[in-house]
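Tutorial handout. Part one gives the primary structure; part two gives the three-dimensional structure as tokens.
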Amino acid sequence: MRKRQTKVSMALLALVLLMVFITACKAGADKDVQEPKQNAQQVQPAEEEQQEALQPGAVSEIRQAENEKTPEEQAALFLPDYTSAPLLNTTEIKCLSMQAGITEDQVQLNWLSPSGEPGKTEWKNSSGNIRSFASECTSSVTVPGYYVNKAVVSGLCRGESYTYRVGNEDAWSPEYTYEIPEDTGTFTFLVTSDAQIGQSEMEYPEETAKRWDSVLTRLKSYVPEAELLLHTGDQVADFGNQEEYELFLEHLALYGIPLVPVVGNHDVANETSIEENGHPDGPYFYEHFFVPNRSNMAEGQYDQNGNYAFVRGNVLFIVLNGCYGHPGEFHEAYVEQIVSLFPDVKWRIVAQHYSPYSGVGSSGNKISDEYLAHITMDNNIDLVLTGHDHAYARSAFVNREKAVLDDYDYKSGGVAVNPKGALYVVCGTSSGCLYHPIETEEHLVFQGQPEAPVAIRIDVTDKELHLQTYLVDTWTLYDEYTIRKE
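Part two.
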């Protein structure tokens, strides 16, 4: 009898072990086929220990549990995409760039062509209907033998997928795809900075460009709902180097999302850079980008004008050229004028290259700390996005006298409700071209040098602006913060 019971017990044990093995295999198979999480919802720490978990270089337990792949697996997949579609440098057309249009149904295209005949861009929607948009064509003064084409595309619809090409009968680009996200009530955009192709003395520009391509590929793949890609300056290391512009621009991911470029100190000529780099003065930045509503308030030497602004969703974007010594009153008057044109937007964001509160001891901060403090408080600016430092930082809320406001939770994962003053965020380098060591700065409540490419995802609704900063190579959440309006 005991022998029979033993046999039954052994059989039951074997059955249980078999069921556990099958369940484990199924779970592993399910995990293998799942894609990396792309539409992470806002995570608000429910308890104090969850807020404490997010420190520089760490990942919240909640977010770590949500990620489908480990940082090591993410790093192994961090690769450039040079094979899925032909790039523009397979034709004689160079440096296609897509910028936001003046209105929400527009984008603006800029490209260089060897043909002196005016070009056009042809757009085909998912139903096969084709529309053509003519470009303005002028001889380039910075790229010998080429012509600058600028075209405005209008009538674009949400939720639609388009294929397009640019050129004329002398030369056409390949076809590229642009998909416009549906309106979900949340406006999502991405922030990058300081790709600065050609900067590093430790590697060839082509190596930096490959890493930049890996960043763009991952951002476009993991955040397909993003509607804009803001780059807060220093697209290239040498303002007059055409090869560096090609290495910055000619990436498949950039053909499918409007770029919002900010003038950096490496992007436009000044007296010192002309002497050091040996290039003549010229509109290098503006022959490669076609920004909306560009200001002509500061015509003059070295093509210094170039503030611009536009609205997307419930967000007013104001982009300042803060690198070339315009007096603060100039920028203050410009922002006041723009805000008066769009009084009903819910959120107001300013972007410029120099951070007024530098975590690396940059001399660029004192150029703008006073006028930005005035601009933000006088015009109810919510957020200031900057670069230049090649390190990440987030400030406390700062008032008109540049004083820190202490009445808020500044931990990663924190939430500020109806804050007074503006938040300043410095995006680290997104190409990993150069990393600066950090220094303590009294206005900064979170700063770090992760020595990895950095990008920021921002999700905006009527009530919340939610910021998530990622180390892109491992898709690790590095910092998180929310501004809430009630």
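Part three, for discussion. Residues 119 and 167 are 5 Å apart (CA to CA). Confidence is low (pLDDT under 50) at residues 1-66.
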